[in-house]
């Protein structure tokens, strides 16, 4: 049971036209929040805003926003203030994924500009205006930045994974660092969520086999099983409503319905023994539930969960497969 009412809380979500942002918008809508959906795609954004109202949001607004434009981001927060009076939480979630081999000189190396424009500059735009809006409101609101588990893989891990994610991973490491800096801002609760592998538009093109291979590598519990957007949404909801056990400033690695301290991954990067390994070794006690409470896992429970989730994932046809 949540302790903080989301009734009339104003929540701005970027990247809410699809995937993790959309799932989060629809989940917190059921708690009576005021939802601001941001993204470039008008039809999808308006549909999410309408679905949020149908799900229970007090009201919802779509603001067409390209986060690479500072003017657009400034207008997003101004329009939110004009309509709803201020901002109580910001999900800084929009991002792009591009694959580029760092050392393949036979093909154009052309993904980096977009990665930097969106994941670095765009995220910074939203974080700057988002923090300013939260401070102006003065409600000890939350800002949650979406990173990626790949920002913290040991040396060689991404090459071993095969999908050429080095430049993407580096832009997400920027997000981790930006969040650490923002965490020093008073009266704002800053969190980073670092998803592993979830089934969204971003990952669907990779196909189920690739996704299962990646989740086998990056997951510490549910090996080979991609997560569902609703599971990540539950972690973000618990941050926004203040029920999370994770402290402000946390880097929360999220794997399906489970979470763990993302800094454990960084610790292992600097452990020479982990060279080439993408996965981290966690004790079962390190694994928490979506809200940071002990998950109470045993080896037997993990086996059962993996078997059940694998059966479900296999029966779900991957759109990209
Ligand atoms: N799915 C995973 O396994 C996974 C794993 C680790 C991290 N992540 C991160 O999770 C976040 C959400 O991704 P997702 O998986 O939900 O994928 P998605 O469904 O493709 O969502 C990406 C969102 O970002 C928005 N976006 C992209 N460029 C934008 C721009 N220039 N301006 C405004 N919005 C923009 C898109 O909206 P428009 O196209 O409408 O603009 C879309 O709503 C991303 O930051 C991603 O890097 C995902």
Q: Name the beta content range.
A: 5-15%
Q: Spans with pLDDT under 50 lasting ≥5 residues?
A: 317-321
* CATH topology call: Rossmann fold
End-to-end span in angstroms?
Answer: 38 Å
What is the makeup of the main sheet?
8 strands, mixed
Q: Can you give the helix content as a percent range?
A: 40-55%
Please give the number of β-strands.
8
Shape field: globular
Order of helices and strands: EHEHEHEHEHHEHHHEEHH
User: Which ligands, by name, code or SMILES, are bound?
Assistant: NADP nicotinamide-adenine-dinucleotide phosphate
The CATH superfamily turns out to be NAD(P)-binding Rossmann-like Domain
Notes on the protein architecture:
The protein is of the alpha/beta class and 321 residues long. The protein has one domain (10-315): NAD(P)-binding Rossmann-like Domain (Rossmann fold, 3-Layer(aba) Sandwich). 44% of the residues lie in helices and 13% in strands. It has an eight-stranded mixed β-sheet, sandwiched between helices. α4 (112-137) packs parallel to α6 (166-182). It starts with 9 loop residues before the first strand and ends in a 6-residue tail after the last helix. Mean pLDDT is 89; it is low at 317-321. The structure holds NADP nicotinamide-adenine-dinucleotide phosphate. NADP nicotinamide-adenine-dinucleotide phosphate binds at residues 14-15, 17-21, 39-41, 44, 65-68, 93-97, 118, 122, 146, 148, 195, 197-198, 200-203.
Secondary-structure map:
Elements: E1 10-14, H1 19-29, E2 34-39, H2 42-55, E3 59-64, H3 70-84, E4 89-92, H4 112-137, E5 142-146, H5 157-161, H6 166-182, E6 189-195, H7 201-204, H8 207-218, H9 229-240, E7 251-255, E8 258-261, H10 263-269, H11 299-315
Helix pairs in contact: 1-2, 1-9, 3-4, 4-6
């Amino acid at each position: 049971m949540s302790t903080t009412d989301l009734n009339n809380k104003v929540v701005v979500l970027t990247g809410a036209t699809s995937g993790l942002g959309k799932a989060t918008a629809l989940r917190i809508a059921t708690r009576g929040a005021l939802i601001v959906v941001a993204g470039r795609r008008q039809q999808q954004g308006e549909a999410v805003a309408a679905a949020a109202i149908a799900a229970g949001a007090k009201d919802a607004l779509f603001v067409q926003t390209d986060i690479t434009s500072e003017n657009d981001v400034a207008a997003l927060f101004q329009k939110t203030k004009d309509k709803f009076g201020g901002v109580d939480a910001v999900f800084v979630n929009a991002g792009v994924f591009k694959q580029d081999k760092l050392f393949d000189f036979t093909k154009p190396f052309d993904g980096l500009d977009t990665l930097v424009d969106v994941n670095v500059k765009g995220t910074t735009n939203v974080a700057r205006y988002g923090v300013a809006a939260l401070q102006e409101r003065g409600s000890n609101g939350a800002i949650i930045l979406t990173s990626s588990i790949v920002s913290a893989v040991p040396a060689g891990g991404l090459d071993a994974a095969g999908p050429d994610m080095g430049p993407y991973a580096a832009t997400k490491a920027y997000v981790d660092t930006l969040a650490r800096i923002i965490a020093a801002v008073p009266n704002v609760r800053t969190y980073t969520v670092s998803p592993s592998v979830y089934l969204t538009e971003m990952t669907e093109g990779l196909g189920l086999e690739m996704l299962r291979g990646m989740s086998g590598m990056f997951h510490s519990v549910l090996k080979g099983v991609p997560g569902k957007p609703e599971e990540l949404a539950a972690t973000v909801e618990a941050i926004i409503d203040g029920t999370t056990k994770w402290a402000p400033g946390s880097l929360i690695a999220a794997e399906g319905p489970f979470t763990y301290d993302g800094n454990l991954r960084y610790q292992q990067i600097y452990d020479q023994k982990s060279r080439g390994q993408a996965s981290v070794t966690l004790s079962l006690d390190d694994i928490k539930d979506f809200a940071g409470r002990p998950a109470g896992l045993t080896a037997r429970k993990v086996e059962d969960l993996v078997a059940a989730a694998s059966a479900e994932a296999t029966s779900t046809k991957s759109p990209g497969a």
